[in-house]
Amino acid sequence: MLREEAEIAIHGRVHSDRVDAAWLAAARQFWAPTGDLLNEAENHGRHRNWTEARTAYLQAMDTGPINWDPHGTFITEVPLKVATTFALTGEHDRYRALCQELLQHADETQAEYASVALILPEALSPALVEKARRILRRAAARLNDSGTSRPQDDWIWLDLGIAEAHSGNTQEALSALAKARTAFNLNCAGVAFASSAALLVRRGDAADAQQYLAKAGELHQRILAEHPNSLSQHWHETVRLELALTRTHELRSR
């Protein structure tokens, strides 16, 4: 109803297909196989069955087009979960293609797209990571100008910090990560602590690095204790924390 009124106001006529019971039934039938595969992948992800999750995601993407729009009807976390699964299973070509698709027309209102590129930035071209960094910088500037803060905004600061670190801007990275370390979301805060620790290791600040790494490990254990039998529905966030912890431990052991 509202859509029809808007189209009449803008175009002078209704040009979209009318949404009625028959249209909805046909749409559900068309999307059912894709939805079933995405649900299957979700279940595998929560139980760390990465190979099976990858297979289900690939089948879903081959079954029908997926609306990646974070402002649309599809849930925002799907591309993040797909990208995380591809990164874990070595599907780097698919991961790069997904990031390229998401960032192709993205702007600062779609920071979720940039977040996908920061899961495994070393697998991407410098130009693609730089595009993600520019999106996040503009998104962070909007946050500063607005003077407001929402829990989901902490991920913008986290991803900006990781992007700046990947580009060699250590001080800018630490400043952004400092804001993410206070995040209410334990996964976000944990990744920020682990990523800060990695930067401090590179800078030679061993004592502070150890303190931050210990805090990241503590947050990780709290998260696992809350979900002892399987990961939560935000399993991709916990996996991202685990990847950050692994990278930082490897960096310290060199």
Mean pLDDT: 85
Residues in helix, %: over 70%
Structural class call reads mainly alpha
* Residue share in β-strands: under 5%
Order of helices and strands: HHHHHHHHHHHH
Q: What is the makeup of the main sheet?
A: none
Report the CATH superfamily.
Answer: Tetratricopeptide repeat domain
Q: What overall geometry do the principal axes of the alpha carbons give?
A: globular
Low-confidence stretches: 5-12
Structure report:
The structure is a single chain. With 254 residues, the chain is mostly helical. It has a single domain, classed as Tetratricopeptide repeat domain (Serine Threonine Protein Phosphatase 5, Tetratricopeptide repeat), CATH 1.25.40. Helix 5 runs antiparallel to helix 6, helix 8 packs antiparallel against helix 9 and helix 10 packs parallel to helix 12. About 3% of the residues have low confidence.
Q: Helices, strands, pairings?
A:
Blueprint: H1 2-11, H2 21-46, H3 50-63, H4 77-88, H5 92-103, H6 111-117, H7 126-146, H8 154-166, H9 170-180, H10 186-203, H11 206-226, H12 235-253
Helix pairs in contact: 2-3, 3-4, 4-5, 4-6, 4-12, 5-6, 6-7, 7-8, 8-9, 8-10, 9-10, 10-11, 10-12, 11-12
List descriptors:
single chain; 254 residues; mainly alpha; Serine Threonine Protein Phosphatase 5, Tetratricopeptide repeat; 12 helices; 0% strand; globular
Summarize the structure.
This protein is mainly alpha-helical. The chain is 72% helix and 0% strand. The chain has helices at residues 2-11, 21-46, 50-63, 77-88, 92-103, 111-117, 126-146, 154-166, 170-180, 186-203, 206-226, 235-253.
